């Protein structure tokens, strides 16, 4: 065997014990989770934003962002519901680069997964308890779901994970909304098959046990664009793309049809300011077509304190992974969205 243990076995219950939600904070989270579920089921017509940094690389910068977002949420809460991206594990296509807080709790330091696990719990806990905003994370590693399952309000399955059977089956046991991205190829059938599996009951082995899930009726589609064999970005948020996605939803008769537009990645070509235009164009499409307005009710936006990205964590609140909208542009976009929804 080429596996070598580099730490003692982790006692996850001990790690979680110091960061469990209780009292008023737990009640606040449960209340917001009910609001979010109503939005996903179409019982609440507010637009959902899953918004925040591409990766949560710096605890204090993330908390500064969270405080600003919570204040803005209060101002727009009657038309817009926001869940903050606190993404702590990042997919790396070739294994190189920053892999997220769970790997490197100090973005300038060496990998330390034991401290990383504690840092992940602590960050989600601090965002919720100190600001009242609830959080989202990406399920890059299915076996790590239990690390944050009691803290997060939204889970995303990424473009490279959505084809994986374990991710699909684990998603069927998640009790919060779970967004499933189209794969990088852009093949919508793969995404819809993943959603079908996630909404169904499943039996499988998970963390050393045979488990049975009840199915996740809040599993839904995230359109994030694609890339062709020549490396060219192929957006899939356009009018015809939305109608095609809606048609497949109706054909498959999945529960709680909901489409979220990922405004970055291959939809924007990672040109962060394009996120503004993509939101604007989608709002026009919603106004133009009643079906699109019914189905397309969410945006995923990558946003941080400063515009753009950097290779090393030098500028406070600037992404070290994908480029993000800075706070000024973010606030302007959210207010523009809010005003548009009131017309």
UniProtKB/TrEMBL annotation:
It is an enzyme of class 2 (transferase). SUPFAM superfamilies: Aldolase. InterPro entries: Aldolase_TIM (IPR013785), DAHP1/KDSA (IPR006218), DAHP_synth_1 (IPR006219). Its EC number is 2.5.1.54. It holds the Pfam family DAHP_synth_1. The keyword Acetylation does not apply. Residues 38-333 form the DAHP synthetase I/KDSA domain. One of its GO terms (molecular function) is 3-deoxy-7-phosphoheptulonate synthase activity. Pathway: Metabolic intermediate biosynthesis; chorismate biosynthesis; chorismate from D-erythrose 4-phosphate and phosphoenolpyruvate: step 1/7. Keywords: Amino-acid biosynthesis, Aromatic amino acid biosynthesis, Transferase. It catalyses: D-erythrose 4-phosphate + phosphoenolpyruvate + H2O = 7-phospho-2-dehydro-3-deoxy-D-arabino-heptonate + phosphate. Stereospecific condensation of phosphoenolpyruvate (PEP) and D-erythrose-4-phosphate (E4P) giving rise to 3-deoxy-D-arabino-heptulosonate-7-phosphate (DAHP). PANTHER family: PHOSPHO-2-DEHYDRO-3-DEOXYHEPTONATE ALDOLASE DAHP SYNTHETASE, PHOSPHO-2-DEHYDRO-3-DEOXYHEPTONATE ALDOLASE, TYROSINE-INHIBITED. Belongs to the class-I DAHP synthase family. This is Phospho-2-dehydro-3-deoxyheptonate aldolase. The lineage of its organism: Bacteria, Bacillati, Bacillota, Bacilli, Lactobacillales.
């Amino acid at each position: 065997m080429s596996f070598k243990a580099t730490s003692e076995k982790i006692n996850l219950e001990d790690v979680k014990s110091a960061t469990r939600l209780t009292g008023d904070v737990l009640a606040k989270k449960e209340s917001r989770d009910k609001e979010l579920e109503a939005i996903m089921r179409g019982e609440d017509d507010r637009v959902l934003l899953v918004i925040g940094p591409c990766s949560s690389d710096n605890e204090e910068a993330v908390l500064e962002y969270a405080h600003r977002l919570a204040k803005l949420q209060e101002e727009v809460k009657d038309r817009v519901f926001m869940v903050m991206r606190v993404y702590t594990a990042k997919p790396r296509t070739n294994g190189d680069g920053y892999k997220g807080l769970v790997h490197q709790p100090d973005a300038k330091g060496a990998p330390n997964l034991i401290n990383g696990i504690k840092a992940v719990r602590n960050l989600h806990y601090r965002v919720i308890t100190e600001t009242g905003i609830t959080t989202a994370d990406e399920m890059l590693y299915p076996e790590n779901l239990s690390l944050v399952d009691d803290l997060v309000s939204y889970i995303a399955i990424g473009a490279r994970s959505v084809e994986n059977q374990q991710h699909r089956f684990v998603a069927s046991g998640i009790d919060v909304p779970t967004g499933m991205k189209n794969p990088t190829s852009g093949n919508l059938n793969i995404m819809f098959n993943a959603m079908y599996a996630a909404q169904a009951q499943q039996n499988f082995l998970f963390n050393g046990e045979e488990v049975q899930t009840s199915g996740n009726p809040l599993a839904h589609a995230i359109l994030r664009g694609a890339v062709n064999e020549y490396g060219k970005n192929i957006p899939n948020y356009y009018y015809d793309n939305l109608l095609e996605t809606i048609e497949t939803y109706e054909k498959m008769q999945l529960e709680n049809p909901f489409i979220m537009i990922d405004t970055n990645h291959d939809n924007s070509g990672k040109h962060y300011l394009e996120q503004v235009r993509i939101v604007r164009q989608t709002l026009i499409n919603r106004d133009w077509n009643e079906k699109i307005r019914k189905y397309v009710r969410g945006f995923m936006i990558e946003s941080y304190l400063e515009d753009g990205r950097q290779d090393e964590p030098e500028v406070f609140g600037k992404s070290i992974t994908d480029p993000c909208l800075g706070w000024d542009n973010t606030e302007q976009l959210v207010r523009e969205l809010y005003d548009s929804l009131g017309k």
